[in-house]
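Hi P.,

Sorry for the delay on this. The queue was packed all week, but I finally got your sequence through. Input first:
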Amino acid sequence: MLTTVFFRKYLCWLAAIFCASVLPLQAQAGGRYALLIGNQTYEHGGTLSNPVNDTALLEQSFAAMGFEVETLTDATQDVLGDAIDRLSERYGSADTVAVYYSGHGLQKDGRNFLVPVDARITSSASIERETISMDSLIEVLKPFPISMIFLDACRDNPFAANLQAGTSVTKSVAQTRGLAVMRAEGDMLITYATLPNTTASDGMGNNSPFASALARHIRTPDTEISVLMKRVTGDVVAETRGQQRPQQISQMQTEFYFKRTPNPTTITDPLRALLAVYPQQVTAGEEVSVVADVPPSCTPFFADFAPDGHLTPIPLQFFKSIALSNGQIRYEISPGSRFGLMIQETDALGTHQLGLVCEPKEIGGDKAAVRTVMAEVATKVKAGELAGFVTTGGYEPVEYRFERFTIQ
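Then the structure:
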């Protein structure tokens, strides 16, 4: 049997019980554009740990949600300015635009500025000359039907020492922490990785807490963005033990969903299962994260469809479970947890489909009944329907959700 994903500390997966075909990725929808900026290595301001990793992670999530993605790393002032100019060229062709920035940001006199990697800030007066004003970015985004700004840009000021040596006005800029409150324009959402006037963490792992949470939740279907961002906030607060709390400023009047379930069912359970599997592409030595929020009526059966056609179960006891305030239960495996999903050299390359089925209570451990249900789920997944309900065997409708990831 080909093995799919291995646990870091424990024995390999249970024997495969079913087969399914591997399918190509879903076609991307038009009208969506994302500009992702990760400024990490500053010529005069040191080096941050994770902006490049953060943009790479989010590139996968935005692309999976049908966005055309442009990613910039270590962007100079000219490169940033040109990218913002190109945004205006999207008028009329993009109805949804998202901008994510990871790197250094400063505030002066209540205005915010993004810091290019070639900025040389030696005085308060040089800030506007050497940086990109958030006011100009907001002005460009305002005409779009829907726009979103995600600012993971509140690290400590790397130019503080230079500014401290200046005038009293310059010193006050050096002592100001984080970004100032901004006003959203048009149908716009602005999200700070942490509260205004405070600093955000680069994170202890490969990604910042905010980037990790955002990349994960973008991929959950049928969740309006205001609800989705509450979940991002909850995850960041939990990971940082209350030291960092994202904040949203919204003028959005339109409901926005990153992903809607194709062929929606007539069943309208407000607490349907949500699933995120990330990153989308992994190699040997990396870990796959799984987060699923399910209603209390759902006993999830987790499994992976491998490229060779086998379905391999993932034991439920390997997941951390948390009761959420909305009544759902979260099951999670993430990097650094006691039981991880570590990719091994022997794992099958190609596209995997990992997810869950809400096991019908009437089955009661009947293996034949499980095979019947999973047979219909496999047929649905083979047809490209990665989420929905099956009604085989005379049971109540059984919900299932799967996500794709690729081992390279």
